[in-house]
Write a structure and sequence with these properties.
- The protein has helices at 19-26, 222-225, 283-289; strands at residues 32-37, 45-50, 56-61, 66-72, 76-79, 96-101, 108-113, 117-122, 129-134, 143-148, 154-162, 165-172, 177-182, 190-195, 202-207, 211-216, 226-231, 236-243, 256-262, 267-271, 276-281, 298-305, 311-317, 325-330, 335-341, 348-354, 359-364, 368-372.
- The chain has 400 residues and is mostly beta strands.
- The chain has a domain at 18-38 and 255-265 and 278-384.
- The protein has a four-stranded antiparallel beta sheet with strand order 1-28-27-26, with no helix packed on it. The chain has a four-stranded antiparallel beta sheet with strand order 2-3-4-5, with no helix packed on it.
- β11 (154-162) and β12 (165-172) form a beta hairpin.
Length: 400
């Protein structure tokens, strides 16, 4: 599964075909409709999340700040300064490890800090947390990732590994109390937690140990809760749920797939119901598919699902400041070129996608939040991106 034997010596990464061929392969290029620089400092945008209605976007940075943006077609894409979450003095020991809007309540924003607390904010009030969830275990492990379920009733948090054990914590959001601790299912850092988008009781977790575990949290104990365990044989970077209708099995959604991007920049797809891997695409192959020459510069970002059920894989090259950004579509168990994103200014670290209008929003190492697609704001003259003077360095390793 590893791509280490595919890494090439230092070279200039470039397209493997001309501009005309790129246009034919990737169809119409997607351009920037709007973007904002979070600051003039060298802040990375590490996490993005969207409200249910896509009216707001939240972004957190490497300097441990959280910023809110209004994605309103009448006002344009604007940062809401008054809602900037600055009430908690996050320090190096309190690194933000994730942000989430409430799945039902668009006025709820949750911010997780690695030191062992998750803060819930009500965006209608002053930027002070209205609830705090924390691990009261004597052997408290730093938090790594978290998610809230489809009806905002349960919060799940994944921890670092300590003495061969990593915990998955469950909290009752309404009572601010612990529901359960799963401690036997993972043996290394938890890197991803995602509740099922519509089934409030189904949870998937991914770990450095290579396992993707699927739980039914309604069960009374961890052994009964564990429904499936999928082995990627690699360290897991991201996981995502996808409806099974994407593979055109039948006319109705008959279950789910889970996609996985590994820390070696390989892609895997699993059938959750059959508990098996059904598709795999290594970094070397993806490099060829996005028409780039250097495998060591190719990196995978995230997967999204369109309104028609297609899986989109977002990938790029970290050469020359990350100017190359492209997407592929999974079709009949193979990837096909989809979009070429022109004028990208940074190595991308995170993304969210609105399937209703095919709007993609990205954040990255330039501290910029970018809106791509057909979304057209009204009453806006030009991009409001602040000028940033930065020195780009050629990078030969994955940014993650």
């Amino acid at each position: 599964m590893s791509s280490s034997d595919e890494d090439q010596p230092n070279e200039i990464d470039c397209d493997t075909c001309n501009t005309s061929e790129l246009s034919k392969l990737f169809g119409e290029s997607l351009r920037i409709t709007s973007e904002e620089a979070i600051s003039l400092q060298k802040d990375y945008v590490l996490y993005l999340d969207n409200s249910r209605d896509f009216g707001r976007i939240a972004a957190s940075t490497s300097s441990n700040s959280v910023h809110l943006f209004d994605l309103n077609s009448d006002k344009g894409f604007t940062q809401i300064q008054r809602c900037d979450i600055d009430s908690i003095n996050y320090t190096e020991d309190q690194t933000i490890c994730g942000i989430r809007f409430g799945k039902e309540d668009v006025n709820t924003l949750l911010v997780a800090a690695a030191h062992g607390k998750v803060y819930r904010y009500d965006l209608r009030s002053k930027p002070m947390p209205v609830q705090t969830f924390e691990n009261v275990d004597a052997n408290q492990k730093p938090f790594m990732c978290f998610d809230v379920n489809a009806d905002d009733s349960v919060l799940s948090i994944g921890t670092e590994q300590h003495e061969g054990e990593a915990n998955l914590l469950l909290f009752d959001v309404r009572k601010v109390s612990s529901l359960a601790v799963y401690s036997d299912s993972h043996r290394d850092d938890l890197t991803q937690i995602h509740f099922h988008p519509s089934k409030s009781n189904i949870l998937a977790s991914g770990s450095v140990d290579g396992l993707i575990n699927v739980f039914n949290i309604l069960e009374s104990n961890e052994d009964d809760a564990l429904e499936n365990s999928l082995n990627t044989e690699s360290s897991i970077q991201t996981i995502n749920w996808h409806p099974k209708v994407i593979m055109q099995i039948d006319d109705e959604v008959a279950g789910d797939f889970i996609s996985c991007i590994t820390h070696t920049n390989d892609f895997q797809l699993f059938d959750v119901d059959e508990c098996e891997q059904i598709f795999e695409c290594e970094r070397k192959k993806i490099t060829k598919l996005i028409k780039r020459s250097s495998v060591s510069d190719c990196y995978l970002i995230n997967c999204h699902t369109t309104a028609f059920g297609d899986i989109i894989l977002l990938a790029g090259s970290n050469f020359n400041g990350g100017e190359c950004l492209r997407s592929l579509t999974l079709h009949e168990k193979s990837f096909k070129p989809r979009n070429n994103f022109t004028d990208n200014k940074q190595i991308i670290r995170c993304s969210v996608f609105n399937p209703k209008d095919n709007t993609l929003i990205t954040g990255g190492e330039g501290g910029i939040v970018t809106v791509w697609g057909d979304w057209q704001p009204k009453n806006i003259d030009t991009h409001k991106l602040k000028e940033k003077v930065t020195t780009k360095k050629n990078r030969k390793s994955t940014p993650y």
